[in-house]
Each structure stands twice: as structure tokens, then as C-alpha cells.
Design the sequence.
């Protein structure tokens, strides 16, 4: 299949497919005329990458999952490196939650102080 067919079947744009290829996530065959030829396995890879990116993983963090698929596994997340990538992302999310919780506490304190000041001066 050609790039437009792959994009349509995987639910992404042609630009996204080109980006995935530039990141080394796709390695299409080349026809004699130089056109890229994609397979059904590439559709699976693109769908997996799309799903992982939607979870906040970077293109680089998707490599273990893609390698897991290329190793012949039915799922991209059953290999040890994939599990490590999940753990890393969860740790990043936990750090961000902690940062946001701290920020929320500061903002709540400032709001309470401002409201208290306003009531005293009104």
C-alpha cells in the first residue's frame, strides 16, 4: 500500500506517517521507482505509535514497543523494555501530579489570602 492508504487505514495524516518514518519508527520497502511500499504490519505500528503518543510518550519512548512488535509479539507492551517505558511514563506523570498539586496549594493559599484581605477592607 502507498502512504495515503496507510495513513487512512491507520487513522493518521500522511504528514504523521512521514514523521514516524523520519524518527525511524517505520522502515518501508522501496519499489523500483523509489516509491515507498507499506504493509499491514506498518498499519499496526502506526496505530500503536498513535496510541502511545496520545498517552504522552515521546516518539523516542515508543521504540521499545515497536521493537517488541517487530520481534513477533502480538502485543507491543509485553516485552521487558516496554514495561520499563510504561513505568518511566508513570513516574513522569506522578512527578507532574506532585508539581501540579504543589502549584494548586500555592494558588489556593493566595486566593484565600486575597479574599480574606478583600473582606477586611470592604
Sequence:
Amino acid at each position: 500500500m502507498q502512504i495515503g492508504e496507510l495513513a487512512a487505514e491507520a487513522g493518521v495524516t500522511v504528514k504523521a506517517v512521514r514523521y514516524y518514518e523520519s524518527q525511524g519508527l517505520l522502515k518501508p520497502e522501496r519499489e523500483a521507482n523509489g516509491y515507498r511500499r507499506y504493509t499491514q504490519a506498518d498499519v499496526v505500528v502506526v496505530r500503536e505509535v498513535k496510541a502511545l503518543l496520545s498517552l504522552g510518550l515521546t516518539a523516542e519512548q515508543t521504540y521499545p514497543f515497536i521493537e517488541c512488535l517487530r520481534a513477533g509479539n502480538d502485543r507491543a507492551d509485553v516485552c521487558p523494555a516496554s514495561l520499563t517505558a510504561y513505568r518511566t511514563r508513570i513516574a513522569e506523570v506522578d512527578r507532574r501530579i506532585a508539581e501540579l498539586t504543589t502549584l494548586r496549594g500555592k494558588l489556593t493559599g493566595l486566593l484565600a489570602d486575597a479574599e480574606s484581605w478583600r473582606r477586611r477592607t470592604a
About this structure: The chain is about 65% helix and 5% strand.
